[in-house]
Design brief:
The chain has 15 helices and eleven strands. The chain is of the alpha+beta class. Helix 7 runs antiparallel to helix 8 and helix 10 crosses helix 11. The N terminus is likely disordered.
């Protein structure tokens, strides 16, 4: 068992490489980075190869391997390096200092691959053997059981940071001036801000503070943008008033959450045939990519994962039904109690409460990623239709609101597919 510990545990300082990854010369710049990290790879007999992963829609991810003669695939993978370069201007969305600390914390607990080095616009870390899950994998019982157990472990053993948030001067400047950079690197003119940030119930980084920073960073060049920004701020105030009550599991209702548990961030770990299901109906999985990890209500992290069952295409037919959600939560609570060292007594009551809480949070992932996508539509150079994605995800939030307050029923409109699927037994 891994007991909770201070986030300030002593650790070796992470190596810093004063180089950058350049998209225009991808392999050349990645090669410079890995040879700086592993200079012995430059000697005769080494055969360096690059494998690009394209599942993400924010960062560039490269696997760098050294295919030395005589090594097995497993031996090659054990020495492989993953290079993750940050997307264009994503520092507006993501606190990179916080991300690195989170990764280091997870690595110390055996919940993340070891960090190897940090460079100007990214990280180098050890490769984790396995197969990234697909949306189809997520609906397979052996996989979701494994995810539930791993998530219960995460939430049980990882400490929740307390105290005020800290950030670099660069990030403070970005969020203080609230100047978004356009895709060509030109600053968008700003006006005096007419939004007063919410005074949070709890200081320090957390889900609600992240959402507040994102709304402050929304574009406001036009009157339409300013009005939408104010509208979303009112919805955030409303949501926090309703849901930030400290009643969930963890410390004051918060656990250390992944907050981005989509299929590509779930790695199905290879095992011998006799251990594939470990005799108890669950695959072994690991989680990767911790850039959004932060203290959060457990119900949000779980509801967000359920939302990701639909994949990037938001196929709501894939969303788990009531019975599947309850089975998932039963596995999760068993794991949470195990790693917290809690008694098995009363687990059913915890499942009942968490089932209700996840239902209360089911619309919040749409709000979270909808606001995120509105910013990405302004700053990202990745070939992805963030603007349309923002409307789809915010539409999930509005559909949930209309279902909860009864306005959809009053108009006689058909129940949206996502809400129908969520209510299915």
């Amino acid at each position: 068992m891994l007991p909770p510990a201070s986030e300030d545990s002593v650790s070796t300082p992470l190596r810093y490489i004063p180089l950058s990854y350049n998209h225009a010369e991808s392999q050349a710049s990645a090669l410079r980075l890995v040879l700086t990290l592993n200079p012995d790879w430059e000697t005769p007999g080494n055969n360096i190869e690059f494998v690009r992963f394209t599942d993400g829609i924010t960062n560039t991810l490269l696997k760098i391997i050294n295919r030395k003669p005589g090594l097995t695939e497993e031996q090659i993978d054990n020495e492989a390096v993953l290079m993750r370069a940050y997307g264009n201007h994503t520092e507006i969305l993501i606190d990179r200092e916080r991300e690195t600390k989170s990764h280091a914390l997870l690595a110390r607990r055996g919940l993340a691959p070891p960090l190897l080095a940090q460079f100007k616009n990214g990280l180098l870390y050890r490769f984790l053997r396995g197969q990234p899950a697909t949306p189809t994998d997520l609906i397979r019982a052996p996989v979701w059981r494994g995810i539930a157990r791993r998530l219960g472990q995460w939430h049980a053993v990882l400490p929740v940071q307390k105290g005020p948030m800290t950030m670099s001067p660069e990030r403070r400047s970005l969020l203080g001036r609230v100047e978004l950079l356009g895709s060509q690197g030109k600053a968008i003119a700003t006006t005096t801000d007419d939004i007063s940030p919410i005074q949070m119930r709890r200081t320090g980084p957390n889900l609600w503070a992240t959402l507040q920073k994102w709304i402050l960073a929304l574009p406001r060049k036009t009157e339409q943008q300013r009005q939408r920004r104010k509208h979303l701020q009112k919805e955030l105030e409303r949501t926090i008033a309703e849901l930030d009550d400290g009643s969930g599991i963890g410390e004051e209702g918060l656990i250390f959450a992944h907050c981005d548990l989509l299929c590509a961030n779930v790695i199905i770990v290879p095992q011998t045939r006799s251990l594939t299901l470990r005799g108890d109906g669950a695959e072994k999985v690991q989680f990767i990519d911790y850039e959004y990890a932060t203290p959060s209500p457990a119900a949000f992290d779980i509801a967000n994962h359920f939302a990701e069952w639909g994949g990037y295409n938001c196929d709501y037919n894939m969303i788990p039904t009531k019975s599947v959600r309850r089975q998932f939560l039963t596995e999760y609570v068993k794991s949470y109690h195990k790693y917290r060292g809690l008694s098995n007594a009363g687990q059913e009551e915890v499942v009942d409460k968490l089932f209700i809480d996840v239902d209360r949070f089911r619309g919040i992932p749409g709000f979270y990623w909808g606001v995120w996508a509105l910013i990405q539509a302004t700053i990202s150079q990745i070939d992805f239709d963030y603007a349309s994605y923002a409307e789809i995800r915010l539409g999930e939030y509005w559909a949930w609101r209309r279902e909860v307050d009864g306005t959809r029923a009053q108009t006689g409109e058909e129940v949206p597919l996502r809400e129908r699927r969520w209510a299915q037994a």
